[in-house]
UniProtKB/TrEMBL annotation, chains A, B:
CDD domains listed in its UniProt record: ALDH_KGSADH
Aldehyde dehydrogenase domain mapped to chain residues: 24-476
Keywords: Oxidoreductase
Recorded GO MF terms: oxidoreductase activity, acting on the aldehyde or oxo group of donors, NAD or NADP as acceptor
Organism whose genome encodes this protein: Ohtaekwangia koreensis
Domain of life: Bacteria
Name recorded for this polypeptide: NADP-dependent aldehyde dehydrogenase
Length: 530, 530
């Protein structure tokens, strides 16, 4: 049995200087669980930041291999938590065991993916221009370039991914890989899970001889503890997966600091799905079934949950709508992550239900228990949608909206009017896709990921993923929060002019001791510098 | 003789809808030159932005080769302007002919460098993960990733690089290479030069069949026309080389937009130079001579001008100080770019001259003409420097400050207290450098470029350059404004999931028709996808 003390993790120390507390709850019922957690005081915030700044001086000099060993040790410690972690996480989130087990595996795989990136080593984008003393009119200096870590990163745990985007999640793994200490503001909806995982990271840090302060974890309110962290002079970057309100508030605070810092807020979106005519005719049933499942998967609690479905009116479209209605009526809801999230979902769907331009097309099966979100599929017209900005806002949960348009032009017009989203999905045959290149062109400018003949839920963790998109789906549309490219959120390039080879980082030394890919005088190579 | 009409360039059209004007002046004397320029009206600003947004839809689909041809055509048109461009540019900036000719060559080379980057094609960072339908528990999708342009970019011409960082300068070249239309806010200190170059770009765009609106150029005040541009809904990014005041104002405005956008302001810095003990003993004369030359090169009007020199008190240091004093007394000033810049320089140096903790160590030769900046070398202590934040601010021009410290610890303490700078320079023998690793470690966190045994003026345009640095030297310490990596200021990644190969951009198609480097399932290769 793992002991829970409810304290802040400040480097290798535990601290409980405050008197205010927050409480762990069973998500499905709201009942209090046994554990209590101290909220961090401002001096605890300062202590964590000071330790992180000091730790950065040591951690930034660790080799890729040493950082990989640390990430691998975190993965090992996570696995070692066994079923106790799964049980408490299920209790605190109301997510089913099979999902939490899969998420634990994903979290472990993310850590190992970054460990692999570090062991291979080429991610630093090493660039070398060799000098030429004889060049006219001026000698050419020797210049060598690579990415280095920005400094301490504050990570906010996400409610909807209590493992994969929380304490040891993707943001934390990417920041560690970049060479940055991490301070996590634990999510108050799963503090026990947070402490389990936070202590696993601390054990991994101790076992692999990482500096005290490479990791801290604090409990508290986002508006208090979170803001203190974002405003702290030692903090160099912020990552959060959360609501628009939370992400935007952190972004604004970060821009207004004496020294502004980047905030990578992944704030979700409605992830439009388009069904093109031939696909609609041929794949009616698969699409209807797949869409209903995607909307209600995990009680709709995914950033990539599809909140908007568009297709053109045709001979076949009514039949599709009826199929969709039927499929949706077979879906079930379930308890949501927190009472607050359920409340917001109910408020959002109730607002739509009474909107004069919106019909309820279908509802999922009524739940037998209380505290459950009830799936609902709305329907409106392109005209109403275009005239009501508020209909573009995400309702977090198992709700979606169908728009049957009068024409292809109306499809294009809705697409053009979209703001930034994480994903857009298009169902189409090869013929459909070829004749809707204009739609694909528009979508490419609106989203980070275009999904063909699939559904946006399910984000592959790999080198090629973009889980990001133009504002307001994120606060930094140049970034991804999933996949190996997410490491660049926490780095900047530095270059060395005429530095003796022996004093350079190993990545840039003549001999290429790490055997990494480098751009030498414009050519990609693993050769040494001659 | 090239005709000057003083109008806005709005795509392929000229426009002069306004009534307010600005005037070209001879920089050395302030006297009015023949030409007058209309300030852009707000509807002209809107017209340029609308055209840019429309042009983006065509320009973003141009192949790398087509964009390269455009950049090469701009280079050709610039060269074709011949001596007339050089003459007018010298008049408007008071910079000598040899410098402006070198700068024109640099500008041409920058355009050709980006053309080369586009012709080679691998810059898009293509990443491919091939699908695996048999993977358990879920099939692996095919995901393909690459960088694409952000959309219209506003570029502010810099006063101190009237060609290389103005209308057809590095920012413009990088934005075009990224696939982004450019709207230049011409610098009002060299409007005739601006019109020459702007029309050259327009001719190149017409000749190479680029879309109307791929380039526009407007005259006006930064606080009016500039702000209208930065706030325009169609503008997706901003680049400026300028003062802290200008850059910060644009950054703040961009953060406060309904849809915030990135601002890449390169705002200069004092670029500290450190001389380590053995190098000081051995290379006294070279360093003293080199430093005095670097401070006063081009009347000190470089972002990388060294405004701070530090070395430890020793048996040799007084001799070095005397040498430096003598070298500095041989330097000359000259006319500055504008009366405003000269005024700010005189105000800045006058403030130092009466500061009780500061001595004047040496002055350059008195100029015979008026309107000339007079080089001046100040001296203070580490203690005074640490106690007066205002001494860290850049005085733009041929001034610098010497600090002789009592110890190595004091050197490290000054280094630790530095804010972000573009560069830091260290003079040291191999032995010096090895025993000052702690200094190099600190500097790596403070600057974008570390220069060993050289001087920071002179920025090599190449793949490996970082001309950027932590705030306040720039508003985005993750970026460089010189070199090929500067293209990533104007891009974001997008990924395609299960897109048929034929519909993908050429960069991501199975056959690798562009023969570029790609990361396929984690391996760097030029092979096709099997």
């Amino acid at each position: 049995m793992i002991r829970i003390d409810g304290k802040q993790i400040i480097g290798f120390d535990a601290s409980a200087a405050g008197s205010e507390k927050l409480f762990s709850r069973k998500a499905a019922t709201g009942e209090l669980l046994a554990h209590q957690f101290f909220k961090a005081t401002e001096s605890e915030v300062n202590a964590a930041c000071e330790k992180a700044a000091t730790a950065f001086q040591v951690f930034r000099k660790k080799s890729g291999i040493e950082k990989a060993v640390f990430l691998e040790a975190i993965a090992t410690e996570l696995v070692a938590l066994g079923s106790e972690l799964i049980t408490v996480c299920c209790l605190e989130t109301a997510l089913p065991e099979v999902r939490i087990e899969a998420e634990r595996n994903r979290t472990v795989n993310q850590l190992l993916m970054f460990a692999g990136l570090l062991r291979e080593g080429s991610w630093v984008d090493a660039r070398i221009e060799t000098g030429d003393a004889s060049r006219n009119p001026l000698p050419k200096p020797d210049i060598r370039y690579m990415h280095v870590g920005l400094g301490p990163v504050v990570v906010f745990g996400a409610s909807n991914f209590p493992l994969a985007f929380s304490v040891a999640g993707g943001d934390t793994a990417a920041a560690f890989a970049a060479g940055c200490p991490v301070i996590v503001k634990a999510h108050s909806a799963h503090p026990t899970t947070g402490e389990f995982v936070g202590k696993a990271i601390r054990r991994a840090a101790e076992k692999t001889h990482m500096p005290d302060g490479v990791f801290s974890m604090l409990h508290g309110e986002g508006t208090v503890t979170g803001m203190q962290l974002v405003r702290h002079v030692h903090v160099k970057s912020v990552a959060i997966t959360g609501s628009f309100t939370a992400g935007k508030a952190l972004f604004d605070a970060a821009c207004r600091r004496d020294v502004p810092i980047p905030v990578y807020a992944e704030m979700g979106s409605t992830n439009p799905v388009f069904i093109l005519p031939e696909a609609l005719r041929i794949n009616k049933e698969t699409i209807a079934k797949g869409f209903a499942a995607s909307v209600t998967l995990g009680v709709g609690q995914f950033c990539t949950n599809p909140g908007l479905l568009l297709y053109e009116e045709s001979n076949e479209s009514e039949a599709f709508t009826q199929l969709l209605k039927r499929e949706f009526e077979h879906t079930s809801g379930g308890p949501m992550l927190t009472a607050g999230i359920l409340g917001a979902y109910e408020k959002g769907t109730a607002r739509y239900a009474v909107h004069e331009g919106i019909q309820v097309l279908a509802c999922g099966k009524q739940s037998t228990t209380e505290n459950c979100a009830h799936p609902v599929l709305f329907r409106t017209t392109a005209e109403v949608f275009a005239g009501h900005q508020e209909l573009s806002e995400e309702i977090f949960g198992p709700a979606s909206m169908v728009i049957e348009t009068a024409s292809k032009d109306e499809i294009l017009s809705v697409a053009s009017g979209l703001s930034g989203h994480l994903t857009a999905t298009v169902h189409g045959t090869e013929r459909d896709l070829a004749s809707y290149r204009d739609l694909l062109d528009i979508l490419e400018q609106k989203v980070g990921r275009i999904v063909i003949n699939g559904f946006p839920t399910g984000v592959e963790v790999c080198h090629a993923m973009v889980h990001g998109g133009p504002y307001p789906s994120t606060t930094d549309g140049r970034s991804t929060s999933v996949g190996t490219a997410s490491i660049f959120r926490f780095t900047r390039a530095v270059c060395y002019q005429n530095m003796p080879s022996a004093l350079l980082p190993a990545e840039l030394q003549n001999e290429n001791p790490l055997n990494i890919w480098r751009l030498i005088n414009g050519l990609q190579t693993k050769e040494r510098v001659l």
